[in-house]
Design brief:
Length: 327
């Protein structure tokens, strides 16, 4: 009897066959769309290092939120750029600050869109670090109460989730306690549990105007060489009350993403960061790669590695392609 012939090509022959047996499928609601919001009106200011990404004013952020929802995107992640900054980052918890105003406006205009508010002090401190500086070093325990205060301000404005990205120890427990005590027990915490001190954040700092004036963030963000530490941090944040967690960056940390997905039983979000986006855009602009194919291939790899959802600057473009429309 002749041995069975194993030919993988039988199921690769046509697009319909390939689609029928595809193991990982991207859909628009896989994506979370980041929004940078600053003071002004009618603002749609291009970010030079991220082609296709803009800083918005509150009114145009609402328009962008409507567009995202129409494309099938279920959530936005809001970052704020204040007109003034100080050593403690107090504009971050100002109830009339740009983020609370954006949250209120978006929730009024698009009630069924999930609004997540990033919680960190780096955009609001005049030194650009993610917490209060004491003798040139971020003081963890002086910073945590300010993060909790900021999270409550965003919950009060109507945020569905708050996303602490500062990497201070103990901030998830403190934020959970503050939210519960303030009557926001149903506001979820999407913790940046596994956030590396990456070289791929440069374009984000261009958009958010949050580059440290001195030093760097390696004293509180994670060493890129460590995987087991990421698993410990993920489990710690879940134990402290995180409802879902982020691994950041994404495509350069797929091994970490896979192991974290195996280690915890909450939803895991991967953040496809600004530098990863900018590299693809630069290569596509030079004609070195097919930009759309490369975008979808990278996003598919992130989902295949274990991401339940993906924060990406490609969210509208990818959702439009997957939905059969043009963004």
């Amino acid at each position: 009897m002749r041995p069975a012939s194993i030919r993988g090509r039988r199921l690769r022959r046509t697009e319909s066959l390939r689609r029928l047996v595809r193991e990982t499928e991207l859909v628009p609601h896989d994506f979370i769309h980041p929004l940078f919001v600053e003071e002004g009106s009618g603002l749609r200011r291009p970010v030079p290092s991220m082609p296709g990404v803009f800083n918005f004013s509150v009114d145009t952020a609402v328009e962008e939120a409507r567009r995202a929802r129409a494309l099938g995107i279920d959530a936005v992640l809001v970052f704020g750029i204040p007109p003034t900054k100080d050593p403690e980052g107090s504009p971050g918890w100002d109830p009339e600050g740009v983020v609370p105003r954006a949250i209120r406006a978006i929730k009024e205009a698009v009630p069924d869109l999930v609004v997540i508010a990033d919680v960190c002090l780096c955009e609001y401190t005049d030194h650009g670090h993610c917490g209060v500086l004491v003798d040139g070093e971020v003081d963890n325990d002086r910073t945590v109460p300010l993060l909790a205060r900021t999270a409550v301000a965003y919950a009060r404005a109507g945020a569905d989730a708050v996303a602490p990205s500062d990497m201070m120890d103990g901030r998830v427990a403190a934020i959970r306690a503050a939210l519960d005590e303030s009557g926001f027990g149903m506001t979820s915490i999407l913790s940046y549990a596994v956030k590396y001190a990456s070289a791929f954040y440069g374009p984000f700092r261009d958009a958010a105007q949050s580059t440290p004036r001195a030093g760097d963030r390696r004293g509180y963000q994670m060493d890129p060489a460590n995987l087991r530490e990421g698993i410990r941090m993920a489990r710690r944040d879940v134990a402290e009350g995180a409802d879902w967690i982020i691994v950041k960056p994404a495509s350069t940390y797929l091994d970490v993403l896979r192991e974290v997905r195996r280690a915890v039983d909450v939803p895991v979000v991967a953040y496809h960061v600004s530098g990863e986006y900018a590299m693809l855009e630069a290569a596509a602009a030079n004609g070195w790669i097919d930009g759309e194919r490369a975008m979808l291939e990278v996003l598919t790899s992130i989902k295949r590695a274990g991401a339940d959802r993906i924060v990406t600057y490609y969210a509208p473009k990818a959702a439009a392609l997957l939905g059969g429309v043009r963004s």
